[in-house]
Amino acid sequence: MSTIQETLSTNPDLPGTFLFNSIVFGPVISRRLGSSLGINLLPANKKVCSFNCIYCECGSTPASLDNSLLPTKNEVISEIENTLINQQKQNKPIDTITFAGNGEPTLHPEFPHIIESVIKLRNKYYPNSRIAVLSNASRIHKPAVLNALSLIDDPVLKIDSGIEATLKLIDCPVESFNLENALKIMEKMNGDFILQTMFIKGEVNNTHFDNTTEEEIVAWLKIVERIKPRLVQIYSLSRIPASSNVEKIELSVLNSISERVQKLNIHTLVTP
Ligand code: SF4
């Protein structure tokens, strides 16, 4: 079984960035997800995303998506099944099967079918493990994507600011993204999702930004209160991306944001 060190590779075009070179990676130990088996639905060693976040560890988003480079549904399912069988034989725990990898997993055209198949595999081999998808929420307006997310245990949706201009500065959507539309859909999810927010400050295109100012936090808390996720994950950079002029937010600031969320009776998890 490969380890994360074996499956992560440095992007030769952008030193300091990391890409996965396989469909399945790990399991790795994560504070948020426990023993997590990662699934990368994007091409090996190539980032594909609907955002181009300034803090992305995968480097810059290429201009176009070449569908021929994506793994097929059959390739994905067979690799996951083989891994689950191997892990089971070795009595290794898997707490979470996590869709993450080299970009936005919901961009894979067969994402809904892959989710249905992985639920069956999970039920067969690791019935107690959870299925998580880490998504930037850019595709939740697609009914099939939203439905697939409703079938899993932990849909983790990212909103990095309650102010659309700041969100666009930080996340740089490469497709159209409307914050209000995303929030309206999240409101209808009845709290059955996890909200994830990256807090950072820095400069992009000569524009200073900081999504921890009082104005930002007030706007962000308003949306948290409105969409009522069952959990809010708050974090900052673990590594400074090579390409960006961004700064990590101190743990004490993250903790004080967390306290304000808890006053709304919403659980939070701060990842240092
Ligand atoms: S959404 Fe995730 S993968 Fe896409 S650019 Fe942002 S951090 Fe990178």
Key phrases:
272 residues, 8 helices, TIM Barrel, binds iron/sulfur cluster, disordered N terminus, 24% strand, 3-stranded antiparallel β-sheet
Task: Explain what the structure shows.
It is a single chain. This protein is an alpha/beta fold and 272 residues long. It contains 8 helices and 13 strands. Helix 2 (73-89) runs parallel beside helix 3. The longest helix is centred in the N-terminal third of the chain and has 17 residues, at 73-89. The radius of gyration is 18 Å and the shape is globular. Mean pLDDT is 91; it is low at 1-15. Bound molecules: iron/sulfur cluster. Residues 49, 51-53, 56, 58, 61, 103-104, 136 line the site of iron/sulfur cluster.
**Backbone shape:** globular
Number of domains: 1
Give the number of helices.
Answer: 8
* CATH fold-level topology: TIM Barrel
Largest sheet: 8 strands, mixed
How many strand units?
13
List each distinct ligand once: iron/sulfur cluster
Helix content: 25-40%
In N-to-C order, the SSE pattern is HEEEEHEHEHEHHEEEHEEHE
Radius of gyration (CA) equals 18 Å
- The assigned structural class equals alpha/beta
The pLDDT mean sits at 91
CATH architecture: Alpha-Beta Barrel
CATH superfamily: Aldolase class I
Order of adjacent strands in the largest pleated sheet: 3-4-5-6-7-8-11-13
Straight-line N-to-C gap: 29 Å
